[in-house]
Amino acid sequence: MKADEIIQSYYKHFNSGHWEGMLALLSEDVVHDANQGSRTQGKAAFRSFLHEMAMHYQERLTDICVMTHPDGLRAAAEFICHGTYLKTQAGLPEAKRQTYRLPVGAFFELKHGLITRVSNFYNLPDWIRQVKG
Fold this sequence. Notes:
By secondary structure, this protein is α+β, with helices and mostly antiparallel strands. The protein has four helices and six strands. The longest helix has 14 residues.
């Protein structure tokens, strides 16, 4: 698969809640930079992150635009995240099933047909404003 196909597949799996499909596209030592969070490494850490996110948020991505470098080793995506805040996450406002809509940017590194880095960025103060109402 080409880089753009890998990233499109990654988001297709995300939108269908098929976490194992997402994980199959990652290298064993994948690096994950969560928005304004710490860097983690490895599929086990990424799986844990997905599980944690699914407990707190229900999200669907739209308007996904994938851009790739000609060498196929780097890619970026921009999309809109439509979500519902399900369960309060430590350090964040109380969850009351609030909905939100956020533009998100993501950056990827790829090697041998697998994603080796995922870095996501969005405006956390805007998300907080939306869920506080």
